[in-house]
Amino acid sequence: MKHRVAILISGRGSNMMSIVAAAGDAYQVALVASDKPDAAGLAWAKARGLPTWALSPKGIGKPAFEAALDAALREAGVGTIALAGYMRLLSDDFVARWRGRIINIHPSLLPKYKGLDTHARAIAAGDSHGGCSVHVVTEELDGGAVLGQTEVPIEPGDTAETLAARVLVAEHRLYPRVLAEFVAQTS
User: Fold this and answer.
1) How many domains does the chain divide into?
2) Domain-located, residue 92
3) Is residue 100 part of a domain?
């Protein structure tokens, strides 16, 4: 039986689409879940027959939201969670329950530029390269072990938006490969 992966998204799901397209024999996408019931990526996943789950944490609070998410993940038999544009911080308790089984794609060459505004920060610092990293999720924001990285040159005249567009292309290649390697090692 293939390793079962859940993909958590908050928006259009472009990294999710790359992960789905690359699944092959490496893993099975068992669930696409979102904290935004109107996320465009959910419609894409549903149209392809993938199981989906969505719930807004607004009005119910983080503990209730994460309990419902945890239940959905367990019901789907998920072994690994891939955060793909999931823009909500997970609680320490949730991370502890799934320790060593959550990975994330981050748009910088970690440990540089944890958090938000990574491309603008790399350009402002005069860096020659930006890039992306896939890492294990821990209680420390963008602080887990780096599993893979891709450098993307910062070109003269780059803006945060132009660099982000080129980094996103690199993310779409890097994340599925690293996810396949990760599940092969943890299965």
Assistant:
1) 1
2) yes
3) yes
Residue 187 has pLDDT above 90, yes or no: no
Structure tokens at 29: 């996408």
The CA angle 131-137-142, to the nearest 5 degrees, is: 45
pTM metric for this prediction: 0.96
Residue/partner pairs of 39-44 with CB below 8 Å, 24 or more apart: 39/9, 39/10, 39/11, 39/12, 39/13, 40/11, 40/12, 40/13, 41/9, 41/11, 41/12, 41/13, 41/14, 41/16, 41/17, 41/85, 42/9, 42/13, 44/12, 44/13, 44/16, 44/17
Any domain includes 76: yes
Q: Whole domain around residue 101: which residue ranges? A: 4-106+133-149+172-186
Q: Rounded mean pLDDT of 166-179?
A: 98
Query: Which amino acid is residue 75, in one-letter code?
Result: E
In a domain, 117, yes or no: no
Mean pLDDT, all residues of the chain: 97
Contact 95, 138 (CB under 8 A): yes
- The β-bridge partners of 4 are 28
> Do the Cβ atoms of 61 and 28 come closer than 8 Å?
no
Residues identified as active-site: 106
Mean pLDDT of 121-150: 98
